[in-house]
Design a protein that fits this description.
Dipeptide-binding Protein, domain 1; Dipeptide-binding Protein, domain 3; 2 domains; seven-stranded mixed beta sheet; four-stranded mixed beta sheet; 16 helices
Length: 552
C-alpha cells in the first residue's frame, strides 16, 4: 500500500473524522499522545499546536470549527455584518460562564485582544492588515500606537463590536484560533508576570473541559469534562490525559501496550503497523497541514558570514534536495514532497474550489531535485562570493519527532554530495531553543515547520513581508511587500480571483529567490483504538477536537 495515496484527496479546510457504526455510550477516559511539551496555556505566549489543542479543549472563542472546518457559533451565538463588510457585531450567549462562576462577557474579549497589542506576542500579527485587518492594529503594533484604539469594543456585557480596516472574507474563521480567545481581566491580573496559565489554579475554562493536572513542560497533563459548559450534553468523554512521547517507537509501544488510545507514528513504525493485520485496522492517516522547510538566515549575524544572502547559493541548496526520498524513506507517514511555499490541501478557492497548491510543478523552473542545475547555481554563487567552500550549521529540534533528526542527516548528506565544498554541521536542540535562535537571528540554517492558522494562503505568504515577526530569514523585497499589501488592504481586497492571482505572483518571488526551501507537507499516521470515534482532525488552526468524541 502507498500510504501517501490515502490522503491526496484532502482539500482545504476539510476535516477527517474517526468514523464508526456502533451506538455511542457516554463517558470514558482516553490517553492521547503529544509529541512536544506544553510550556504555557497563556494564549499570548503559546506558539505550538500542542499548546493550542490543550487551550482549545478548555476555552471557547467567539466561533468554533465544525467537522468540516467551517466557522460556527460558540461563545457568540450569532453575529451581524455591516453592508461594507467592515463591522461585525457579535451577540454572546447568556449561558457561557468561566469555571470560577463568572459570566463570559464582551469585556473579556476586548481585554484579551488589547492585551495582545501590548506584549511581544508571536501571533498578534493575526490582528494586523496582513490577516485580520482589525482597525488600528498596524498603528499599534508597528507605530507605537495606543492599544486602546484597537477596533474592538464591548458595547455591553453581551455585545462585542469589531471594526476592520477592510473586508476580510475569512474573518469568522480566524476567531476559533486561540489568539482571539477571551481572558477574564480580574483573574489574569491577580497573578504576577508569567504566572497566568501555568497551573490549574492560574487558569480559567469556559469550554468543554477543565484543566485538572498541568505543570509547564511536564510529560503528562489531564483535562476533565466541564459539567457547567453551555453545551455539556454534547461532550461524552470524562477526561483526556495527554502523554508526551519522544519517539515513534515509544508511541507504537505505548499503543500496543494499551497505555495510549491515540498515538502518532512515523518512519519504520508506519511500515511495521501496515504489516501487522491487527494494527493496520487502527491506522488513520490525515493531513496535518504543517509545512516542513529550511529557513536561511540572510544576514551577516551568523557563522555563514552572510553567504546565505546569496540567492544562487540558496537555489543551489534547494535543488540539491531529494524531497521524494525524504518523504518516502525517512518520514514515511504519508507526508507529501512539497515544491511550493504554500503547502497543498488546506486552502481552496472560494470561487472554483481548487486547492491553491494543487499544481506542485508550478515553480519547476526554480525548485526540484536536479543536481546539474544545483551545480550551475553553485558555480555562480562561488564566483559571486569569491570562495569555493562554505560551512553552515543547521539547527533542528530534538523533541519534534524522531524522524526530524533523520531528515536533517539526509539533507546534510544530499547537499554535501551534490555541492562539493559545502559542509553542513548539525546541531540538535529543543524546539524552544530553536525558535529562540531563529527569532534572534542566531543561526545559519534551520529545519523548521509552520502550520496554517487559517484557511487562506496568506497564513504562509504573510510571513515574508519585510519586518514581519515570523520572517526568520530577514528577507526583504519591495515588489513582494506591495503585492501582499494589495491583497490585504489595496487593489485586490474586493476582487477574490484577482487576489488569488496576485498571491501566486508573490509566491513565485519567494521561490525565485529561495527565501525558504520547502521540503514536505506533514501527514499524521494516527493509531486509534477501535472504540474511539468522533475525533475531528483538521489541517488548519486546531489539529484535533474532541467535543464529539465518544468511547463505544
Amino acid at each position: 500500500m502507498n500510504i501517501r495515496k490515502m490522503i491526496t484527496a484532502g482539500l482545504a479546510g476539510m476535516a477527517m473524522a474517526v468514523l464508526g457504526s456502533c451506538v455511542a455510550l457516554a463517558g470514558g477516559d482516553i490517553y492521547v499522545m503529544f509529541s512536544t511539551n506544553v510550556m504555557s496555556l497563556d494564549t499570548n505566549l503559546a506558539t505550538d499546536g500542542e499548546s493550542f489543542e490543550l487551550i482549545a479543549d478548555c476555552i471557547d472563542g467567539l466561533t468554533q470549527m465544525d467537522s468540516e472546518g467551517a466557522a460556527i457559533p460558540a461563545i457568540a451565538e450569532s453575529w451581524d455584518v455591516s453592508d461594507d463588510g467592515c463591522t461585525y457585531t457579535f451577540h454572546l450567549r447568556d449561558d457561557a460562564n468561566w469555571s470560577n462562576g463568572e459570566p463570559v462577557t464582551a469585556a473579556d474579549f476586548e481585554f484579551a485582544w488589547k492585551l495582545a497589542m501590548t506584549a511581544n506576542v508571536e501571533y498578534n500579527y493575526m490582528f494586523d492588515s496582513s490577516v485580520g485587518a482589525v482597525k488600528n492594529a498596524d498603528a499599534i503594533l508597528y507605530e507605537e500606537g495606543d492599544p486602546d484604539t484597537l477596533g474592538v469594543k464591548a458595547v455591553d456585557d453581551k455585545t462585542l463590536e469589531v471594526e476592520l480596516e477592510v473586508p476580510v472574507s475569512f474573518f469568522p474563521s480566524l476567531l476559533y484560533f486561540p489568539t482571539f480567545y477571551p481572558i477574564n481581566q480580574a483573574f489574569y491580573e491577580s497573578f504576577g508576570d508569567g504566572e497566568y496559565g501555568t497551573s490549574p489554579s492560574s487558569f480559567l475554562s469556559n469550554g468543554a473541559f477543565l484543566l485538572d493536572d498541568y505543570i509547564p513542560g511536564a510529560a503528562s497533563m489531564t483535562v476533565v469534562k466541564n459539567p457547567d459548559y453551555y453545551d455539556a450534553d454534547r461532550v461524552n468523554l470524562d477526561s483526556i490525559t495527554y502523554q508526551v512521547v519522544g519517539s515513534s517507537d515509544q508511541a507504537l509501544t505505548g499503543f500496543k501496550s494499551g497505555n495510549l488510545d491515540l498515538a502518532v507514528v512515523s518512519g519504520d513504525q508506519v511500515a511495521s503497523v501496515q504489516d501487522d493485520a491487527q494494527l493496520a485496522d487502527s491506522l488513520n492517516v490525515v493531513g496535518a497541514g504543517y509545512l516542513w522547510y529550511l529557513s536561511f538566515s540572510q544576514t551577516e549575524n551568523n557563522s555563514s558570514d552572510g553567504s546565505l544572502g546569496n540567492v544562487n547559493l540558496r537555489l543551489a541548496i534547494t535543488n540539491a534536495i531529494d524531497r521524494e526520498s525524504l518523504a518516502d524513506n525517512y518520514v514515511m507517514d504519508g507526508s507529501l514532497p512539497t515544491y511550493t511555499a504554500v503547502p497543498p490541501q488546506f486552502a481552496a478557492s472560494a470561487t472554483t474550489g481548487e486547492d491553491f497548491s494543487a499544481d506542485q510543478e508550478m515553480f519547476a523552473d526554480y525548485i526540484g531535485f536536479d543536481t546539474a542545475r544545483a551545480q550551475e547555481y553553485y558555480e555562480k554563487a562561488k564566483e559571486e562570493l569569491g570562495t569555493d567552500s562554505f560551512q553552515f550549521t543547521m539547527i533542528y529540534g530534538n523533541n519534534e519527532g524522531d524522524e526530524v533528526a533523520k531528515v536533517a542527516q539526509a539533507i546534510k548528506e544530499q547537499v554535501e554530495a551534490a555541492l562539493d565544498g559545502v559542509t553542513i554541521d548539525l546541531q540538535a536542540m529543543t524546539k524552544a531553543e530553536r525558535l529562540e535562535k531563529m527569532q534572534n537571528d542566531d543561526y545559519c540554517v534551520a529545519l523548521t515547520r509552520w502550520g496554517p492558522d487559517y484557511a487562506d494562503p496568506m497564513t504562509y505568504l504573510g510571513m515574508w513581508v519585510t519586518d514581519n515577526a515570523n520572517n526568520y530569514g530577514f528577507w526583504s523585497n519591495e515588489e513582494y511587500d506591495q503585492l501582499i499589501t494589495d491583497c490585504t488592504s489595496g487593489a485586490y481586497v474586493s476582487d477574490y480571483d484577482a487576489r488569488w492571482e496576485a498571491l501566486y505572483k508573490a509566491e513565485e518571488l519567494v521561490m525565485q529567490e529561495a527565501v525558504i526551501a520547502p521540503l514536505y507537507t506533514k501527514a499524521n499516521a494516527n493509531l486509534i483504538i477501535d472504540n474511539l470515534e468522533g475525533v475531528d482532525f483538521h489541517p488548519v488552526a486546531l489539529n484535533r477536537v474532541y467535543k464529539d468524541a465518544v468511547l463505544n
